[in-house]
Design goal:
It is a single chain. By secondary structure, this protein is mainly α. It has helices at residues 3-30, 61-75; strands spanning 39-40, 54-55. The chain has one domain (3-75). Strands 1-2 form a two-stranded antiparallel sheet. 1% of the residues are buried. The mean pLDDT is 90.
Length: 78
């Protein structure tokens, strides 16, 4: 793979990650959960072959509890 092809592939992965972050933010908002640090991990985008990571980040106790309840409800089939 040429350098140009690797760069194009990296850009595509970063764009895909940006879309996923937006989907996660919207999805969490629909269930009343806000993860203020949700973002793409910039350091993971560096290098010739980046392993783009989504950083779910930190949240306060209330957000963690709400997220836990939503996961419990989903697991229970609600």
């Amino acid at each position: 793979m040429t350098t140009t092809e690797r760069r194009r592939a990296a850009v595509a992965r970063i764009r895909e990650a940006e879309e996923v972050v937006a989907l996660l933010k919207d999805g969490f908002a629909r269930v009343g959960v806000k993860l203020p640090s949700l973002r793409i991990d910039a350091a993971s985008c560096a290098g010739d072959d980046p392993a783009v990571l989504v950083d779910l980040g930190r949240c306060n106790l209330d957000a963690a509890m709400r997220l836990s309840r939503v996961l419990d409800e989903k697991a229970a089939g609600s």
